[in-house]
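hey so i finally got around to running the thing on that chain from the lab meeting. sorry it took forever, my laptop kept dying and i had to restart like 3 times. anyway pasting the input first so we r on the same page abt which one it is
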Amino acid sequence: MNRLLGKFLRITVFDDIKLRLINPLEYQQKTFLLGKLLEPEVTHTICSVLRPGMTFFDIGANLGYYTLLASKIVGSGGEVHAFEPAPVQFRHLSLNVRINRSKNVRLNNLALAERSGDRELFLSDGWNQGVHSFAKIPGSAHSRLVQCISLDEYVDGTGVAQIDVMKMDVEGAELLVLSGGKRTLAGLHPRVIIFEACDQHARAQGYTTSEVKQLLRESGYRIFRLDSSAQLVEAGLSSAESYANLVALSASADRWHYEALGVDLAKSAGRRTAGT
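ok and heres what got predicted. didnt touch it at all, straight out
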């Protein structure tokens, strides 16, 4: 029944975005069927910091909900670069971009990693098919080789001149993505990076979420935890994260970025001066 519905079921979600679903009984896709926002705090954050003409990177695009949301916001003067290595998800992502007639989206059937080359991706066949991973996971009955590229090589090869907002949902591969993009972080200074952090997934890849936050801090970012009400709370570098949505703000971010996200600059500066 899932396969039958997923083949034919197309729904309209937030901001008139049309999605063809893969597995309507999967918990994330049931959210759409119930008429609710997917990850409302992340949706709100992206809507708050994106503007027409900006460039958005969607790393781990899945079916394309955030890709299409960003496409509508940045408009014809902006760009969206979507990355999805899993073959079934990429086919649906491509279809959803066509259905929505999004002309400003560049589709990439690639994974971002620390270096270019082929890598084994373990595919989830369980109740949540959005958790494919480079690390073997429960419920992954099979795997396949996927093509990877580093963020630095992609930016150099495509001539991307700016990245305003970046969203990562890569099931524990955050450090790989960022390690392959150190020149990009230093040169283009993406203003806002929104990403999911889970210590369990990170450790399966051989590192911790603290290491991800430390790399970002060394690259000039302040790290905040995004709570369920879309408020930002400064995150400690040494604390392990368990299924947390984090927001990294570049030192080059403008005051309006902080104001849009509800960060009290004076209060936040006071806490940092006090060493907390």
